[in-house]
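Box S1 | Example of a co-folding query
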Amino acid sequence: MSTPNIVELYGVTKAFGALTVLHDIDLGIREGEILTLLGPSGCGKTTLMRIIAGFEATTHGRVTIKGSDVSYLPPDKRPVNMVFQRYALFPHLDVFDNVAFGLRLKKWPKERVREAVQHMLHLVQLDDYGSRWIHELSGGQAQRVALARALVNAPSVLLLDEPLAALDLKIRHHMLAELKRIHQETGTTFIYVTHDQDEATILSDRIVLMNKGCIEQIGTPEEMYAHPGSLFCARFLGETN
Ligand code: ADP
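Box S1 (continued) | Returned holo structure for adenosine-5'-diphosphate
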């Protein structure tokens, strides 16, 4: 039996004024997979991700997560969290308080907060970093804190928007392996945005290749490289960075 879809997009179209940036997108995202939205800058990846997160409304069409329409769910009831390229951590809080922030807003008891944060800092291999300030961290460490913060309340779906783009190449490769490990350990569904075909290939169970607001092809990395469905796919996947 195939894995059920946790996220479903039905005819998602998005226009900003006269400019239509997403055209009638249908897509099912399977529970527990790492699905990457890949494509050149400006093709609509971030807009699609923001729509899945419920940050942006569709012009037509709808998105469901676990069967519920995201646009009807209040923000604190949406089972998704997001990690950004620039980490978006709070500079005036230490590492522990950054990870604990959302749990305290939800009024979790102190002891549960402590346990959950310590568990997450262990998952991202920052056990001894709780009392460090954000400016004391390297880029890779800051992104680990952002991951811990996004995973601490066990979302069903984690959206990652070019999370490694600000890191240098060596750290990027290490963080890709770390992301795979964290994905395996948590079982969370990852939806990953990148314009980098190497990142997509290393990380993904399936790749969605986008071009000008449309889906060009969906497949495993092996399928995409063995059978590119169009000249655009062949050219884009063949490019070197
Ligand atoms: P990508 O993530 O693939 O680089 P984006 O989703 O950021 O692409 O952008 C897709 C298109 O939508 C671009 O032409 C961009 O300029 C446009 N766009 C994105 N957000 C807005 C906005 N808030 N207002 C107007 N145009 C936007």
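DSSP finds eight helices and ten strands in the chain. Residues 16, 21, 39, 41-47 surround adenosine-5'-diphosphate (CB under 6 Å).
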